Amino acid sequence: MIRQPTPGKRGRRPISETDNALIEQIRLYLRVNVHHGDIKRLVAAQKGISTRTVEPYIRVAKQRNLQANDRTEGEARADATEYWAKRQLAAENLIRKTNDKIAEIGRLIEAARETADDMTTHAELREAAAQRLGFLLRDQDHHRRVLYQANQDSKESQDRIERILGVHAPQRYAQTDRDGNDLPVSVRQPLTNTVASEMLKEIVDKLRARQEYEQREGKPWTTADLEKYPELR
């Protein structure tokens, strides 16, 4: 059975082959985005150990993944936040477009229903309106499904961002500055939902500015543009 001490730390036993196998297994879980709590429960059940015993191995696995990518944890967190913010922005845009489409289809449905129910209208026109009504209702159902999925994507993105920012219970992360560096304990402040919302708004505004720049200039933004256009930072 795996013992409690953290593997590889100074003054502790060296990492064994068994430890390495477990760490590599956890690295795979992390790469496919398995939640830390799920990893702890899964490994604990497989190895017959406590979930608390698994925690040091998760830390080592995260360090190895970061070293393999040659990036700091702050850089990885910033990239992950930008990814989920971009995904949420895409979902919100789809929600707006789909709502507009559903409203438009609703107006067409009412017009088709009126024609189909109007007994003073020619029979062929009423039949055509009834067929069109059927098509419109199916189209409306399709867009409602799209809207539901877009709302789910937006909620999932918000959940992921809150986890990364450290405001999603029960996980908490160290606060960082704008460059992704951990803040000293002496200057850290408790994060509130308001602060998290402001941080998220700043990220989304930056992404919008970058998208507008790319549409306006017809080319992707580069680091050289950050000095010329501060709003892209």
Question: Describe it for me?
Answer:
By secondary structure, the chain is mostly helical. It folds into 2 domains: 17-70; 74-217, no CATH class. 71% of the residues lie in helices and 0% in strands. It is built from 7 helices and no strands. It has helices spanning 17-31, 36-47, 51-69, 73-117, 123-165, 193-217, 223-228. Helix 2 crosses helix 3 (51-69), helix 4 (73-117) packs antiparallel against helix 5 and helix 4 packs across helix 6. The longest helix is centred in the middle third of the chain and has 45 residues, at 73-117. The two termini are 50 Å apart. Mean pLDDT is 76; it is low at 1-6.
The outline comes out as elongated
Strand elements, count: 0
Counting helices, strands and paired strands, the structural category is mainly alpha
User: Span between N and C termini?
Assistant: 50 Å
Rounded mean pLDDT is: 76
Summarize the helix and strand pattern as letters: HHHHHHH
Q: Biggest sheet, in brief? A: none
Please estimate the helix content.
Answer: over 70%
Provide the domain count.
2
Quickly count the helices.
7
